[in-house]
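Data follows
____________
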Amino acid sequence: MPSELPMKPVVSINANSQRGVALLTILLLVVSITVVAGAMLASQKIAIRRSGLLFDQNQLLQDINAGQQLAITLIRADAKLNDTDSAQDIWAQPIPPYTLGGHSIGIELRDEASRFNINNLYHNGAVDTAALAVFQRLLTQLNLEPEIAVAILDYQDADGEVYQDGGDESVIYSQQTGRGTDKTLPNQALLSIDQLAEVKSINAEVLAALRPYITAVPYYLPININTASPVLLAALVEGASSQQMQSIVELRAKQAFNSIDDVWQLPVLSSIKEEQREALTPLLAVDSQAFMALITASDNASVGQARQRFATIIISKTATDGETGNSSVNSNKNSNDAQNAQNADSKKPKDFRVVTQRLWAFRPNF
């Protein structure tokens, strides 16, 4: 009899299918876990990056505050050396950057009293006619319309009538830009010269021409004769030119003026009548009561572009009794009284503080 052959095992098709499905499921799980893990890792990287950016931003803001204190310290130290502010002083010299670890702080200082403060037009509840006349002559020096000064004055003064005209401001200035349907003027001091874009007759070109010669300090600020430009100095005298005032610039470069009386003795100003001197003296000083500081904070990144933040601040330097220089000097006082008041204030201990601060994402014009 033939011998029986051994039987081969029969593999179930269903078992093979189940193993294939299980393997596919495992592969899908692995892929899903990989995708989820990748997403979690990417999210974690984003969170870490965001935290790093926030930390850097906070560090830059701290650097700006540190730069602010350094600027105040520098101005305070300079005030102890003399009673004038001029281009020879330490605050006017280039200031090297301060390095703090991986960050650096840059400081630039500018005498705001070297410019005409547009808030001088109206202060203590009254129009300053002498300041208005100087500003109108400055506009003429810049080939701009003198009526712009009246429009800026009406923007600030407390009444609703056009200065020396009597017309309704809301009607006269109804076409000024940026006012929308509200034609009522703010009737308050300006906080920034950029606000002048809201004033009638001031467009981008006019503002660009004015910007180097004006400021918007929120209190009365006399013009510093030791730092004012020849153009602004020429605005003090009817019919004067910036070329004529260049002699004053050359003299103060050798030695700063110690009093306004010294200026009146100069040949270029000797023809000014006594009445006009009395009106101009409260508008002038030989020191500054306000400085603008531009602070640049950088993280000095070794990889990629360094991050920077900017801030502009106004630092006041006033007598400790709270008076802002000549704001208490009436226009009907004679020049000797005004000069005596200036001298008295210059001998008082000074108070230094920040009165305005503005942060910038980009470097502003300075």
Observations:
- The two ends are 116 Å apart (CA to CA).
- The longest strand covers residues 308-319.
- Confidence is low (pLDDT under 50) at residues 322-335.
- The chain has ten helices and eleven strands.
